[in-house]
């Protein structure tokens, strides 16, 4: 054999050997992938096409003190269809019937749905959108439509569940009820977020075209467990009264914003809280929780603290006479002036308070505390004004009361300015807590928004009255000032709200707003000053005057000066409106009420509602156009069970008006 042939044969053997090794390696790798690493790659493939999704639990509900719902989680569904999953024959046989049912339920024509469904079938759409934000009841109905009732695999029915937070009473008390979402934690929901959070469930989903995922079955692998409930102190009836009384006056006076709070005297339970600010469009909504958050100069409502301090320290009595001179005095170049030109002459300390003489109160405090301002400050500290209250909910504003020990903040006029409510900054809730203590025989209780916490209808924790100060002043002092406060309404600055039919006691406040130094529109520097155009009007007190059941504060910021800006004409009528409505709806100590109401439109609506509520019903009434809260109350009182969707006023009712009333039936109201 020639050398050349041997060389070719050697190469052939080498190539054959190499190919044999190569094929053995391939076979080995295939065997390894299939039998050794098969489970790993199979799991990876499954992981890329099937996943476990979270089914979020509903947060707990927030309830009013009487069991009415204030906030709840509502189920909403997005309905889709995997058209590919439906057998062609089944699709052709029932697509027309399905289109008709969708038309009846969702509103568009049956031709529209028929066209869309056929196009989806033609394009092999596995994730065709039917409807968004479908309620639970409608979801159950749609689920039984032709084709859909065959389920996920044969009917292509896909329902994706989500929960949304809803307030059945609309925007009323929204800031206090609060939220816990992308906006942060606010109000009751924010404060009790951990308690209200439920336990999430699990559900398998399968990947289909275009990175879309659909549920594999209608059953969750792990069902979610709803969160726990919070029972508030809010009374729906009082809340409604307070909200509408404040809203009407803000609209009437074109004010910037305001708040009103009603608190039960003995317990400190907040029965109503309304915070309304003006939008850019001129409407009002729950913009901020002004009652808790906004610290501001209170003006004359603070004179009660000055009066109590001086009487309790026995440096004056209600009969002590002070000369208001000509109604003007100067202290280190700063002017103190009464609203009445020429002043009030020589009057008693009681009368100083009744007519709200600035000169009178400043003279009394200056005379007896100028040499010992710390003694006066110690009283103010005892009344709860120098530090935050510490509420169950977040967002409380910081008070500012200068101390004589702080030489950087205390000035020559600090004492005098403090005596009539200037040079300090406190929140409406602090003022209310102090006035409530006066009504409560000197026992200062902390305002409270939550009564109890419940888990699956079992009470877990009960909140009781928390005493901040067991006695802010002597019984004798408190008796005297309560009488003076009653006289404010009978013959003082608030006599415009006096009624012989029910008693009230309180104090008006009118304060100029301080405008900080700033640059004007033309670029000129404007120094800080008290504005003669922008005011804060307030009224705070309690009722009935002799046996106080409720305390209440009303604060209105920046009303149109041309329409009114005094506490007596801006805030006091709101207080009276609230007190009168509460007397009417929840009589206190059998005091009769037949007085006129400042806002006739509100009163007429209220009377019409009460008339409907009290009349005997054999037929279902017409509630369309009524507020959702009023409609629910009316219908439940006549024996119907009520379901609602949406917020606002009633757009339509499932049981038409005029039909025979059958107690126990369920009526569904759609609100818009």
Q: How big is the Rg? A: 36 Å
Q: How far is the N terminus from the C terminus?
A: 104 Å
Oligomer: single chain
Largest sheet: 7 strands, mixed
Overall body shape: elongated
**Could you say which structural class the secondary elements and strand pairing correspond to?**
alpha+beta
Question: How does this model look, in words?
Answer:
By secondary structure, the chain is an alpha+beta fold. Strands 2, 3, 4, 5, 10, 19 and 20 form a seven-stranded mixed β-sheet that branches. A six-stranded antiparallel β-sheet has the order 13-12-11-26-25-22, with helices on both faces. A three-stranded antiparallel β-sheet has the order 1-8-9. Helix 3 packs antiparallel against helix 4 and helix 13 crosses helix 18. The longest helix has 34 residues, at 3-36. The termini are far apart.
Write the layout of secondary structure elements.
Blueprint: H1 3-36, H2 38-49, E1 50-55, E2 62-63, E3 69-81, H3 88-106, H4 110-122, E4 128-135, H5 136-142, H6 151-155, E5 157-166, H7 174-177, E6 179-181, E7 184-186, H8 187-191, H9 193-196, E8 201-208, E9 212-215, E10 229-232, H10 236-253, E11 257-264, E12 270-278, E13 284-285, H11 290-293, H12 303-312, E14 321-323, E15 328-331, E16 334-337, E17 346-348, H13 349-355, H14 358-369, H15 373-382, H16 414-419, H17 428-439, E18 444-445, E19 450-455, E20 458-462, E21 467-469, H18 475-491, E22 505-515, E23 518-519, E24 525-526, E25 529-543, E26 550-557, H19 567-570, H20 572-585, H21 600-614, H22 628-637, E27 641-645, E28 650-653, E29 666-671
Helix pairs in contact: 3-4, 10-20, 12-14, 13-18
